[in-house]
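One record is set out below.
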Amino acid sequence: MSSDAWCDHCDMSLISCPHGAPPPPPPPAPEPKASRVRTSRVADAGTPSTAVRSSVPRASATRVPGTPAPAPVRRSPITKPGRTPQAAYRPYLLSVVAASDGRIEREPALEALGRRMADVLQRDDLAVGPSGELRWRTAAQKERRAMLDAGLLRSGGPGVWELTRAGYDALDAFRAALSASEAESGDAEPGDAEPGDVEPGDAEPPTA
């Protein structure tokens, strides 16, 4: 640009005039920043390794206010080898209580249960546990508490076990399943004692 050129808008030379001066070049674009990395040493191998720090926030374990608390997880009892599973006592307990008009005291119930399960109980069931009681009796009373929680039994008073309508239905279901199994296998022998067996004269569920 000639130094003799003058601006038409002002009385200054185009070299120094703001109207004729070329615009300044744009600033250079910033260079992208590299992701931050941190090094950690592997304890077993003894060699450094790199781990990129994630920008995603971790999920919080705090429960959101207003949401229901998660239901507790109920774990099934662990059966040790040489012992009868606790759930196996249920059909026998149902039949014992049903055989006594749906109501029986604790000690007679355990005595009748021991007779019915004489061919089922295993070696460790007959051993004495830490409480000083036979292990099978302890397991039977634990299953009785589980049946209370399930609504199959109810307390008829101190030391009295009483069968509910749901308990009679559960006993009928055990009998039906047993009959179906025997019909399929054809292995049942006359006179075999089974969990759902009820002796002649056993009471039926109350109609009221």
Strands lie at 37-41, 48-52, 103-105, 153-155, 160-163.
